[in-house]
Amino acid sequence: MTGNRQTSWAFADAYVAEDDVLRWARDRAREAGLRSVSPGTGAALRLLAASVDAKAVAEIGTGTGVSGIHLLHGMRPDGVLTTVDPEPEHQQFARQAFRASGFASNRARFIPGRALDVLPRLADAGYDLVFCDGDRLEFLDYLAESLRLLRPGGLVVFEGVFANGRTVDSGPQPTEVIRIRELLRAVRESQELVPSLLPVGDGLLCAVKRADRPAT
Fold first, then answer.
1. Which residue blocks in 101-189 are alpha helix, DSSP H?
2. What are the backbone angles phi and psi of residue 155, rounded to the nearest 5°?
3. Rounded to an integer, what is the distance from CA 41 to the centroid of its chain?
4. Which of 73, 91, 107, 175 is most deeply buried (CB count within 10 A of its CB)?
5. pLDDT band at 104 (very low <50, low <70, confident <90, very high)
6. How far apart are CA 22 and CA 128, in angstroms?
7. From the CB of residue 110, how many other CB atoms can be counted at a distance below 10 Å?
């Protein structure tokens, strides 16, 4: 990558400024050894939530609330974020961050637990956007659940699909990278989805669930 392109990429990632609350949530994530979405990824999530006028969003991987704040900012004022994480203590940080950002407590529903235990309990076609930032080994399972959860025209979004450049590396790769490659192929080849791969942060895979087409 050329120096100019790297500079442009850094400029794009920092284009939407983050406030003190987001920086606080990032600090808590860093202390806990968690990855947070980049500022550019957060801005993209905000945009995507706004683009579908999201009222109901499901998030896999609460972390300390960085991505959730961006999603809530993009959602409708009456929208509800349902966020799932196996670590309740992380969700407590997210609660504090959401409150400090001015969101009422009824704007977020926190569910502790493994995503694949929780997602089957959520309503069919009840969500405008599903954001997947959990265990990469489970990404294909998240995709199957997302197709059920999304309304026609809804968005599924996966974070971290570049895997720090390993996804496109030709050398031997760990299982999680192999799973990401399988996800990328499945999304691209699905007849139910309209996909795009955004080069923000560590890679953001997005796809729109097609509306049912009338028989001809």
1. 115-118, 139-149, 175-189
2. -115, 140
3. 9
4. 91
5. very high
6. 24
7. 19
Strand partners, 157: 131, 206
**32-80 pLDDT tens trace:** 999 999 999 999 999 999 999 999 999 999 999 999 999 999 999 999 9
Distance, CA of 132 to CA of 115 (rounded, Å): 10
DSSP label at residue 134: S
Residue written as token pair 């960085």: 66
At residue 205's C-alpha, the angle toward residues 83 and 157, to 5°, is 20
List pLDDT tens digits, range 163-181. Answer: 998 998 888 889 999 999 9
Instruction: Write out the two tokens for 78.
Output: 């009456």
What sign for the dihedral angle of Cα 64, 70, 72, 73? positive
Overall size of the chain counted in residues: 216
- Residue of 106, 33, 101, 99 lying closest to 70 (CA atoms): 101
Helix (H) or strand (E) run with residue 99 in it: helix 88-100
pLDDT at residue 215, rounded to an integer: 46
